[in-house]
Amino acid sequence: MEELIKKADILMEALPYMKKFSNKTVVIKYGGNAMVNKEVMASVLKDITLLKYVGVNPVIVHGGGPVISENLDKLNIKSDFHQGLRITCQDTMEVVEQALLGKVNSQIVSLANLAGNKAVGLSGKDNNLIQAKKYSVDEEVDLGYVGEVEKINPEILETMIDNGYLPIVAPVGVDEAGASYNINADLVAGELAAALDAEKLILLTNIEGILEDPEDKNSLISRLTISEAEEMIEDKKVVGGMIPKVQSCINALKKGAKRTHILDGRMEHALLLEIFTAKGIGTMIYR
Ligand SMILES: Nc1ncnc2c1ncn2[C@@H]1O[C@H](COP(=O)(O)OP(=O)(O)O)[C@@H](O)[C@H]1O
Ligand SMILES: CC(=O)N[C@@H](CCC(=O)OP(=O)(O)O)C(=O)O
Fold this sequence. Notes:
about 290 residues, alpha/beta, 8-stranded mixed sheet, 14 strands, binds ligand 2
């Protein structure tokens, strides 16, 4: 009996958070490096299903960098990165769309539906959800079809949320002429969180959060203000794939999202522990 009461107590601990997040939008970015295998992915999608059933409105944005790289390798197409962004020629862009939409998006949609959702997969092209333009670093670096978000047209997502669907978004944008752009999924998630006035932006990756020293697993930083996070990029303490994540969090916060988190998506129930416990896990960047 005592065991059972303990279980009920655990459920009760979640009540304040269920109240707080009921009917609020939470944008969850699921990174390719956190999609370790089908079992881990299924478990993440079950957690997201629980969120949906207690009244939260999750919106998933997925990455898929490793699948893109694998498919490019098979076709002997070389790809290089500049500050965490994949330099994307026309051939690469075709592979990016096939990998993200044909494989990763459909796999997530299937797992989400198996877990009991009304999941619908879409890219930034659907109803011009993600209007993109060419990403310009400076005059010397040309990243090809790497895009940045010019404008989010959130109506399609709002309609889906209002009707109980779970949107699963692939980070491909479209410009006025109909050309496709490869946009880093972290940056898309930040822009969507801003456009949807999200209560939280959660980035699921393959590391516990932001580390003071990336070599030292015990150096997790639990909380960072915007300016502290900016300093970490300037000081080159945050490098590579972590740069777009931190930039995405800062951007979302500046444009109105309430809180942003970077968590290890490979850890069992990471999402539930973050949302439904007082201490949370990972790194929170806040205003
Ligand atoms: N200060 C830091 N703290 C933690 N990770 C960092 C830091 N700086 C760079 N990284 C790197 O960023 C990686 C996460 O980015 P990435 O591999 O692109 O993930 P994803 O596929 O989830 O988008 C980590 O695995 C780590 O190697
Ligand atoms: C421009 C750019 O770099 N786009 C990314 C899009 C996928 C992505 O962001 O995937 P992860 O979140 O798994 O890294 C890429 O081509 O890999």
